[in-house]
Amino acid sequence: MFGIRYESWKKVCEMYFGLSLGTLKSYLQLFPFTKLTDKDKEEIKSKEFFEKYIDSGAFVLFPKMMHHSENFIQKADGSFRNSALISPLLFLVLQSIGKEVAGTYQAERPVNVEAFYAGNYKESRAKYKRDYDSFYKSVNAYAEQCQYFIKTDIKSFYQNINVNNLIERINKRCNNHEKQKIPQSVLLTIKEFLLFCGNGFYPLIENSMASSYLATIIYLDEIDTKLYKFMETKVKGISEFHMVRYVDDLYILFSSTKEEKELNHIYNEIISNYSSILKEYGLTLNTSKCTWKKSTSINEELKWSMYDEVVNGRKHELGELFKGKMNLFLQGVQKATEKGITNKDYIELIDRNFGSDDIELAPMVVYNYFIYDDQTELKREENIEELSKIIERDNSFLALDTKRLSIMVMQSGNNELIKSMLYHLFIRYRAGLWNSFDTSVAIAYLIQSKFQHIDLLDIVRVVKPQLYSYSCNFCRTSFMFYLRYGNCEKWERYRIGMNRDCRAAFLYFMYLCEQNRHGHLASYAYYKSFFDRMSANMAFLSGKNKGAKKPDYNGYYKRKQLRPLYADVHDSKEIIDRAQDYRNKNPLIHASSQLLGNNSSSKELQEMEKKLDYLIDSYSKLHYSEWSNHLRQC
Predict the structure, then answer these.
(1) 242 contacts 148 by C-beta, under 8 angstroms
(2) For the sheet containing 291-294, what is the strand order?
(3) pLDDT confidence of residue 311
């Protein structure tokens, strides 16, 4: 249904199952993979599982597997990104779709334009670090050849990607008159899948290689090509140039025959054209982050991302290079809280205490090292004491950088400090002051405590029910438990009754998509078609079509065919008659279009969908054993 081959599915599973436990435990989106046993992993990447749930599209029938909600990812300025949180199974499907497209897509970019994204499908690498390092090395190599560089940035990149334009780009480069490598039905399903995962937007999902690949390599492909051609043919005074991109950050490195005082004109010409090209694709330059400088100052804009940087010919431990800096940082924070610390104060303190002219490491990278990789400094008594003073004076300090600061408290290992952080969370909830920053702190704590704090989960259940569902279904236990033993008997019956019919799965998926965007006329149209097709499949499995080798899809959409099939189900005649009546009044199905004048039609249509579901559920309960016998004979 989604154009995924088993080879791609298996490779994607191996990539993400192969990530270190430390990496998986650092992110809410990846945390569910820590709950999988070796047996679970082998089953998920098996061909049997793939054919049973993925290739057939049957996973769309299982409500818990279709979980999608908001995530809480902060930007550097403390605000939240418009990010999504999806079930681990949807996550793997999304990565597999990305891999299939990556194996087919032929990029248009000229050879002088390099593009990197977070991960690498060709080398089966799910983590971003090595590819960012390659980007860094490429920029610095060209900086040695060229006199100047231009740094650019796209504003709110992911949320402004037009999914329709993205799909059209894939179609243009993958399909031609001679060969359709990705069928139109698959492109439609991919488009709807992306919008479903992103709650109506292009999906920004934590650690999603597919999101990064599709946005960078495909969506920006034509944009980069147009800008390159403009610079090659229209910009005068440039003797050499190269373009290197990492997702939405584009560096243009160039040499010029012009005097330096004339370079503002060249910069403005390039930026104006780039901005105009982006506008055609619904994107906008973040001009406050765009600049041009001499290449000798490239490291003011771009810092090396490796922790074990070589300094003066030998490797130094960051703990040695920045010994005592954590205490100075915390003292600075404590002083700043006296008058109320701001995000700007916080960033300046990080830069002041964890920056160094001796090594090419961004201060934030050094700061990250002491939080995520080596907590020796955090466990020092003097630092615990400073943290305690900060939390007592201004617990809202945590809102500046909820994930890092919450982890800092947790990694201190001091129970009193951790209790203090939790105490303030509970106080804020009881006072009715809970907000998204508190939710983000709670997530960080729950991840570190393996989602064992029941009282905190109870608060999450009230303030963010979908986040609570994600936590219980995927973070406290393996999602395979649900598929094997959980309350999904009904959906297993539906899966069997669907008889591996991808078109039925497509209809049900489109019904979910229309439900998601509150398109009630369309959702009913899709559900009625799904019901009719499921009826044909179930009739075939029950032996109703004597001697037939396949279901009779033309025979199960009218009253006279459907009534006998559901005759043993209570109220089936009335339900079928009313369902058919709504079908014939739906403007998306029938020209009469009478539902357009019915103000209460959305509620009535939703009720009818539930009643049709009741018929499928009741019939499948009555005939499940017959289907098993039929399938054994086949």
Answers:
(1) no
(2) 113-116, 238-246, 249-256, 148-152, 291-294
(3) 44
pLDDT in tens, 219-228: 999 999 999 9
What is the number of other CB atoms lying within 10 angstroms of the CB of residue 377?
24
Give the CA distances from residue 549 to residues 26, 541, 574, in Å, rounded to whole numbers and listed in that order: 52, 10, 31
The angle subtended at Cα 120 by Cα 314 and Cα 368, nearest 5°, is 45
Distance CA 598, CA 617 (A): 29
Please say if the pLDDT value at position 308 is more than 60.
no
Could you tell me the CA-to-CA distances from 381 to 123, 138, 330, 377, 387 in Å, in that order? 44, 43, 12, 9, 10
Burial 594-632 (b: 16+ CB within 10 A, else e): ebeeeeebbeebeebbebbbebbbbbbeebbeebeebee
Give residue-wise pLDDT tens across range 538-581.
988 888 777 678 888 887 777 888 999 999 999 999 999 998 88
Give the tokens for residue 405.
């600061």
pLDDT of 328 above 80: yes
Check if the beta carbon of residue 78 is closer than 8 Å to that of residue 401.
yes
- Residue 31's pLDDT band (boundaries 50, 70, 90)? very high
pLDDT at 305: 43
Long-range contacts of 592-599 (CB under 8 A, 24+ apart): 595/521
Categorize the per-residue pLDDT at 309 as very low, low, confident or very high, splitting at 50, 70 and 90. Answer: very low
Q: Is 37 exposed, middle or buried (0-12, 13-18, 19+ CB in 10 A)?
A: exposed
- List strand residue ranges (DSSP E) for 310-455, in order: 310-311, 314-315
Q: Strand, helix or coil at 281?
A: coil
Q: How confident is the model at residue 316 (pLDDT cuts 50, 70, 90)?
A: low
Report the run of H or E that residue 614 belongs to, with start and end. Answer: helix 601-633
Residue 580's nearest CA partner among 629, 532, 522 is 532
Distance, CA of 469 to CA of 467 (rounded, Å): 5
- Quote the CA–CA distance of 413 and 435 in Å, as a whole number: 26
563 in Cβ contact with 576 (< 8 Å): yes
Query: Are 191 and 80 spatial neighbours (Cβ–Cβ below 8 Å)?
Result: no
Q: What is the pLDDT of residue 612?
A: 95
Q: Residue 87 contacts by C-beta under 8 Å, 6 or more apart in sequence?
A: 32, 64, 65, 66, 67, 68, 470, 473, 474, 479
- Dist. CA 337–CA 335, nearest whole Å: 5
Q: Which residue has the higher pLDDT, 485 or 483?
A: 483
Per-residue model confidence (pLDDT) at position 442: 94
Cβ neighbours of residue 109 under 8 Å, at least 6 residues apart?
115, 221, 224, 225, 228
20 close to 26: Cβ distance less than 8 angstroms? no
CA gap 123, 356 in Å, rounded:
34
User: What is the full DSSP assignment across 63-125?
Assistant: GGGG-EEE---B-TTSPBP--EEE-HHHHHHHHHHHHHHHTT------TTEEEE-SSBTTTTB
H helix count then E strand count, the chain: 28, 11
